Amino acid sequence: MNLSDSQTAGHGGPRRVSAMEAVLAHLRGAIERGEYEIGHKLPSESALGKEFEVSRSVVREALRGLQALGLTVSKTGKGTFVTASGPVENPTFGTYSARDLFEVRRHVEIPVAGYAALRRSTDDLDLLGHLVERMDLETDNTAWVALDSLFHITIAQASGNPVFGKVIEEIRDALARQSSFLNQLGGRRTRSNTEHREIVTAIASGSEADAVAAMTSHLEHVENALTTIVRPGHTTHQNKDD
């Protein structure tokens, strides 16, 4: 089964999806249709790689996606087993759930952006500008995710309150896992780059209200993207530009 030409619908028409997305979609569909029942073991990485004509690293990423969706569990030395017939509404990224992350981000990163607009230094703005430039040019997902994490930590540091930076550092790994998941399954990277620039522009303007609005919009888009993956046809927030 060759997956090189797979496409999916999205804003502005169909977009070409990665091999990992296509493998995950096929496996997710098979689980939801009952082809792999709860408790059953999925084929090995090698067998799946041959079936879909992709590398084992692609299969491995797809299996991680299934696990994040709550559909499977991986047992060291034994394989991957089906645990549910449909995705959980609150997927887990590392040690924190999506709900954990969204609740904290709403109450921390939104006011942090406002404080950053009022307190940011020239060095803060230079670093934020440098980061968005690098994210625009970056093509490697892992490298982009690392820059994304640094971007949000830099905003927290620009707030002038070191406690905010500590909070973001605590959830950094979970945010990176979630960001990677959304980029690979939701095609979020290009849109995120635009939203990041809007946040930097608002912070640079010195407007607390604009910075708060830009960060609020960004987090709502992130939440909607995750909801769309987990529950197609549903959104958490309705935005004017959606």
UniProtKB/TrEMBL annotation:
The keyword Transcription applies. Keywords: DNA-binding, Transcription, Transcription regulation. One of its GO terms (molecular function) is DNA-binding transcription factor activity. It comes from the Bacteria. PROSITE patterns: HTH_GNTR. Pfam families: FCD, GntR. Residues 17-85 form the HTH gntR-type domain. CDD domains: WHTH_GntR. Signal peptide: none annotated. This is DNA-binding FadR family transcriptional regulator.
